[in-house]
Amino acid sequence: MEMGEVVEIVRNGIYVLVILSAPLMATALIVGLAISLVQALTQIQESTLSFVPKVLAMLAMLAITLPFMLQTLIDFTTKLQDKIVHIE
């Protein structure tokens, strides 16, 4: 296996990682900003207040995007196994 192939595999792995984590990270960011805005407006400065809504929103987003995530991982794994089979 040449260095270019290894770099391509690593690049594809990082791309898949970013694509899979983006919906959950964006959800956490949006919910966190909304809760921070509510805390600033009401002057309730409780640090644990944002934890439960973030977890619930991320679980909901995970349930929604799980088929997409699984299909993406299956496609990446299949391509990786095809490359492993063709190593000389």
Describe the structure in your own words.
It is a single chain. The protein is mainly α. The protein has one domain. Helix content is 85%, strand content 0%. Helix 1 (3-42) packs antiparallel against helix 2 (51-85). The longest helix is centred in the first third of the chain and has 40 residues, at 3-42. The chain is elongated, with a radius of gyration of 19 Å. It starts with a helix and ends with a helix.
Summary keywords:
elongated, mainly alpha, 88 residues, 0% strand
Low-confidence regions: none
- Could you report the average pLDDT, rounded to the nearest whole number? 91
Helix percentage range: over 70%
What composes the largest sheet?
none
State the helix count.
2
Strand tally: 0
Proportion of strand residues: under 5%
Terminal Cα separation, in Å?
A: 7 Å
Count of folded domains: 1
Rg over alpha carbons: 19 Å
Approximate shape: elongated
